[in-house]
Design goal:
8-stranded mixed β-sheet, 2 domains, Rossmann fold, alpha/beta, 7-stranded mixed β-sheet, globular, 11 helices
Length: about 375
């Protein structure tokens, strides 16, 4: 496998591309052949000419690309797979836990499918981890977006007519997105507080100049993949009650709490939003997986009767497509480079490799990932 096809994204609101010209130039230098569908990089600032100059072949249709390649790369799974040949390796984010019928469809069609969000959270796989690269940009943009809607400025400012107090920002969930949100809010001059169910992140919060809100939830921790463990209903209620006071005093609340492969927990209830000040901004970054905030809606802002605004924080990395595409492309390049067999000039799909076994979902007309064996 050494022929790569970069598809143009079809989702209406997708602005990213999975490979950028500098990485394509490096792939071609290694021995890959690359075809790019016309317009694939347009929304992220890359013209067809940029890809041509990098050495890629420009094709007009999906059929031309599918006929050319044995590896397909894109940001998101396609609406349909007609035309993808049996034995082709398809690489993209996939949302596999919510797309089980599609997983079976790929297996039945004989398409080898790598789901990038299933990449193991190991040191060696870190450079291939789209979850981290994209979440970092989303955390940054969540603060920028909130700041643009807030009816006050972030920093303290002393003026002849009086002193303006700094904005108060509360971050719930201190993963990659949360840490970047903390750092960005601090750079803008806000007073920042943060909470996470994993006590181990307290030092990280403090190192960024923020205050860690301590809530005793009993035994907590994280999974071997670095994700927060799912809370019991009793622990969720304890967290809500303790956070209510902090939320009521905050100008901005950003929630980032996702549970991998499961519905996001509701952490900010209607009772809590009713206690918040008029003009308070809430950004729910978990809205795509059910939402951390009661009443939040995907792709739509909600303004409550008391003047609190709940902003949909779904895939905010799409609003900075140049950088998010560069980082996504870096993750794809790292994968294609790591498994490149230079002697035989091919991508080596080693089923026994820890990285491949973690993210390969279908192969040889079967569902090969153990997490989805029940739908085979």
């Amino acid at each position: 496998m050494n022929k790569v096809f970069l598809c143009k994204e079809t989702a209406r609101d997708e602005t990213r591309t999975a490979l950028v010209p500098p990485d394509i130039k490096k792939l071609i230098g290694m021995g890959y052949e690359v075809a790019v569908q016309s317009g694939a990089g347009q929304c992220s600032g890359y013209a067809d000419e940029d890809y041509s100059e990098a050495g890629a072949k420009i094709v007009q249709t999906l059929k031309e690309g599918y006929d050319f390649c044995d590896i397909v790369v894109r940001v998101n799974k396609p609406d349909e797979i007609d035309g993808i040949r049996e034995g082709t390796l398809h690489v993209s984010s996939f949302d596999v836990f919510n797309q089980k019928e599609a997983v079976k469809q790929y297996a039945d069609a004989g398409i080898k499918m790598i789901s990038l969000e299933m990449m193991p959270r190991t040191t060696i796989a870190q450079k291939m981890d789209i979850q981290s690269s994209q979440a970092s940009l989303a955390g940054y943009y969540a603060v920028v977006l909130a700041a643009s809607k807030l009816p006050k400025i972030f920093p303290m400012m002393m003026t002849p007519s009086g002193t303006i107090s700094p904005a108060k920002v509360f971050i719930i969930g201190v993963g990659v997105a949360g840490l970047q949100a903390i750092a960005t809010a601090k750079r803008l001059g806000a007073r920042v507080e943060a909470f996470d169910t994993r006590p181990v992140v307290e030092e990280q919060v403090k190192s960024l100049g923020a205050k860690f809100v301590k809530i005793d939830l009993g035994e907590m921790g994280q999974t071997d993949q670095g994700y927060a463990k799912e809370l019991t209903p009793e622990q969720v209620e304890l967290q809500r009650k303790a956070q209510a006071k902090v939320c009521a005093q905050s100008d901005i609340v950003i929630t980032t709490a996702k549970v991998f492969g499961r519905k996001a927990p509701i952490l900010v209830t209607k009772d809590m939003t009713e206690q918040m000040k008029p003009g308070t901004i809430i950004v729910d970054m978990a809205v795509k997986t059910g939402g951390n905030v009661e009443g939040s809606k995907a792709d739509e802002d909600v303004i409550l009767d008391n003047g609190v605004r709940i902003i949909s924080g779904d895939s905010l990395e799409r609003f900075v497509p140049k950088d998010s595409s560069n980082m996504f492309s870096g993750n794809i390049f790292a994968l294609l480079e790591h498994f490149w067999d230079a002697e035989n000039k091919t991508f080596k799909l080693d089923y026994e490799d820890e990285i491949i076994s973690g993210c390969l979902i279908t192969a040889d007309k079967k569902i090969v990932h153990k997490s989805f064996a029940d739908i085979g």
